[in-house]
Design goal:
Strand content: 15-25%
Strand order of the largest sheet: 5-6-7-8
Distance between the termini: 38 Å
Number of helices: 3
Radius of gyration: 18 Å
Shape: globular
Number of strands: 8
Oligomer: single chain
Largest sheet: 4 strands, antiparallel
């Protein structure tokens, strides 16, 4: 059994309404797993992504692994939560080149037009205190940036350029 929810919306936080941001509020998905062979009553703080759900189901279902799948299987973590390892995850902005890199401690945002933000999500879970302007946090930002794509795919056609063909 898997229970997960849709990520959240902003309801006025930071003056935002809706979900067009890279902040945690619009990217945090609760996820609960239960079943034979899975740990019971455990909570894992490692960073995972919704893109990990399918590879996890493939492994738990006993299917052959498929190296072409994006994401990683969480099956070993679900069986042995103490083995969980945190990792840097990518969250893309709707505009090409904008993204966030996040893990269980940090969220680093890079906007397509060049702005940057950094939050210590342990000390500042609401992401109010942007640490990016402080020189002492440059190494953290550089480490997270190294995990980001070096280039992004070109944008697809505008919706008004698409035509339905039946």
């Amino acid at each position: 059994v898997i229970f997960w929810s849709y990520q959240g919306y902003h309801h006025g936080e930071k003056g935002q309404w809706g979900k067009p941001t890279l902040w945690k509020r619009t990217a945090n998905i609760p996820c609960i797993w239960a079943g034979p062979g899975l740990a019971r009553g455990a909570s894992v703080g490692a960073t995972v992504s919704a893109i990990d759900l399918f590879p996890t189901l493939v492994e738990l279902g006993g299917l052959a692994p498929d190296a072409s799948l994006a994401g990683v299987s969480l099956a070993s973590t679900l069986r042995e939560p103490a083995l969980a390892k945190d990792r840097h995850l990518l969250l893309c902005e709707i505009r090409q080149g904008g993204y966030a890199m996040t893990n269980s401690r940090w969220r680093s945002l890079h906007y397509a037009e060049g702005g940057e933000e950094l939050y210590d999500v342990v000390k500042d879970p609401n992401e109010w205190d942007n640490l990016a302007p402080q020189e002492k946090y440059r190494p953290v930002m550089a480490e997270l940036r190294q995990s980001a794509p070096k280039q992004f795919a070109p944008p697809g056609p505008e919706s008004n350029e698409l035509h339905l063909v039946t």
